[in-house]
């Protein structure tokens, strides 16, 4: 049983997640009977394919590894949700999940969600619509999702924005560190479950365009980033990357701006980034790009690329 203060904390945390952000305070309070907090030790199983999918989980702290039925492994951390598909499906889970470290989740009871004695139908409908939208994005290839939709979704584990490819606005000149920032994201997408990088977009989703990078033409820009990928990551990984330049309309009255879209599929072999001094191995951890320590690289590669625990 949740204490009143604990319940308030749980509802406050959930209200920040996109699944629940459309609910007002009264509607959030109405789901109090279907939420609870639970802790898991390292290596403890959150769920597996044999279990009945009764719960949807919000990761409050820690990390979980999800093993999908196609042997793809995904790492999820605090602030992310697990179990949406199974709760909507109601019959089975498409994978298993284990705690990678001591972790805490907020569990939402899927069976009670659909019973009006616990949750008002209009509230349940709002939650289901939000879940369905998120599930749809899982089931569609990122290459099939429009750039406008990616701008509306915002940054997450498979979407990231960069204002420029090579221009440092602070020192007002070209900067290899800015190039490295984009290449880190690309390498991380290759080493994780893929994703899309949009260059010419600020963190707040506003379109800033590609003019600051001062390329003679779009062809020169595409040639430049293609060369960077082949020279600094690997020519072998270029086949997993699709580059395109798109014209995006801004607010009414503003000029149309061009942005660079970089779609990355999950690679079949490890992708290292040569920063000029040494090679680094990057992965996505939630909405962030993480540089793995030397001691972490081999276990990750063994698990991610060879399916060995």
Instruction: Return the string of H and E elements.
Output: HHEEEEEEHEEHHHEEEHEHEEEEEH
* Count of helix runs: 9
Helix content: 25-40%
Q: Structural class of the helices, strands and pairings?
A: alpha+beta
Question: Largest sheet at a glance?
Answer: 4 strands, antiparallel
- In total, the number of strands is 17
Give the CA-based shape. globular
Radius of gyration (CA) equals 21 Å
Unreliable stretches (pLDDT < 50, length at least 5) are none
Average pLDDT, to the nearest integer? 87
Distance between the termini: 36 Å
- CATH topological fold name of the largest domain: Methyltransferase, Cobalt-precorrin-4 Transmethylase, Domain 2
Provide the β-strand percentage band: 25-35%
CATH superfamily of the largest domain: Schlafen, AAA domain
Could you please describe the fold and organization of this structure?
This protein has 309 residues and is an alpha+beta fold. The protein folds into 2 domains: 136 residues, Jelly Rolls, CATH 2.60.120.10; 165 residues, Schlafen, AAA domain (Methyltransferase, Cobalt-precorrin-4 Transmethylase, Domain 2, 2-Layer Sandwich). The protein has 9 helices and 17 strands. A 4-stranded antiparallel β-sheet has the order 1-8-3-6. Strands 2-7-4-5 form a 4-stranded antiparallel β-sheet, with no helix packed on it. Strands 9-12-14-13 form a 4-stranded mixed β-sheet, with helices on both faces. A hairpin with a 4-residue loop joins strand 15 and strand 16. It starts with a helix and ends with a helix.
